[in-house]
Amino acid sequence: MGCDVIPTVITRAVVAEELPAVLAWAARRPGWTVEFDDPALRLDVKTNHPATGTPLLIQADLEGYRAVAPGWRFLNPGTGEAAGAPFPQPGFRPAIRGSIFHGNRVICAPWNRLAYQENHGPHGDWGALTNWTDAAAGYTKADTLADMVSQIDLHLAASPGIMP
Amino acid sequence: MSLGEVGADIAPTPGEHGPRSEASAPHPDHGQITVQVVAPRDPDHPRTFEFRHNELVGTAARVAADAFGYTAGNPSFANDENVVLDRDKSLAAEHVHDGDTLHLVDVGGGV
């Protein structure tokens, strides 16, 4: 597998450095599991929706990481495919300004490369994909894989259910 | 920062349980509290911080975030019940007590 941004050997080295924190983070939270698919350079995060108990599979495509952000998306936990994937409804907490879960079924955060217009996401205002650690100042911020999973957890806790 | 200074990280070595942190608890100054902070990027090594009880959550979280190497963002704390604390309120107003464990979170919203 190749990448025009960064060699996979570099990405693997970065992931090897960050993975222990993600695994340790998940180990502290009942119902969360994290698995790294090394050949595919993918991180599979499994949990249940806190309000409905719906099984969730959140996958990060790590190709090109950290030159570009991972590509985070929800997949159908039964098939591993995008079709039929449950997607959380946006929810709000008083101390958080807005949800990362959008009606277009994209995790709308600068640390998700699928949110950028370049990848058919809604945001053409964040600059280049490689600007992800500085994009959207003042909004959700997560610079490591563990921080990203923590952000997903935070916003899931505020989600009232699954989008129809 | 020196021991006892507001916002001081009194566990300079992650995971250390040295005499400096032990000496601070129980703390004689009721205006100061000592809390453990867990950060997602280093969950196996919580760090100990000493804050004024009337310190703003946002200010205290920034100190902790800096110590863990976080830059920018909107750091706050969540308690063990996963309740996110209001950055604009004091630790006391958000019912943080001496000895509590707080979880560092970023409360910047979605876009």
Could you walk me through the main structural features you see in this protein, from its secondary elements to its overall organization?
The complex is a heterodimer of chains A (164) and B (111). By secondary structure, chain A is of the alpha+beta class. Chain A has one domain (8-158): Ubiquitin Conjugating Enzyme, CATH 3.10.110. Chain A is 21% helix and 15% strand. Chain A is built from 2 helices and 4 strands. Chain A has helices at 8-27, 145-158; strands spanning 33-37, 42-48, 55-61, 71-75. In chain A, a hairpin with a 4-residue loop joins strand 1 (33-37) and strand 2. The termini of chain A are far apart. The model of chain A has no long low-confidence stretch (mean pLDDT 94). Chain B is of the alpha+beta class and 111 residues long. Chain B has a single domain, classed as Phosphatidylinositol 3-kinase Catalytic Subunit, Chain A, domain 1 (Ubiquitin-like (UB roll), Roll). Chain B has helices at residues 19-23, 57-67, and strands at residues 8-9, 32-38, 47-52, 75-78, 101-106. A 5-stranded mixed sheet of chain B has the order 1-3-2-5-4, with helices on one face. In chain B, a hairpin with an 8-residue loop joins strand 2 and strand 3 (47-52). Mean pLDDT of chain B is 82; it is low at 1-6 and 11-28. Chain A binds chain B through residues 18, 20-21, 24-25, 28, 90, 93-102, 108-110, 115, 123, 134, 136-144, 146-147, 149-151, 154-155, 157, and chain B through 40-44, 70-74, 76, 78, 82, 84-87, 105-111.
Write the layout of secondary structure elements.
The complex is a heterodimer of chains A (164) and B (111).
Chain A: H1 8-27, E1 33-37, E2 42-48, E3 55-61, E4 71-75, H2 145-158
Antiparallel strand pairs in A: 1-2, 2-3, 3-4
Helix pairs in contact in A: 1-2
Chain B: E1 8-9, H1 19-23, E2 32-38, E3 47-52, H2 57-67, E4 75-78, E5 101-106
Parallel strand pairs in B: 2-5
Antiparallel strand pairs in B: 1-3, 2-3, 4-5
Structure summary:
Chain A is an alpha+beta fold. Helix content of chain A is 21%, strand content 15%. Chain B has 111 residues and is of the alpha+beta class.
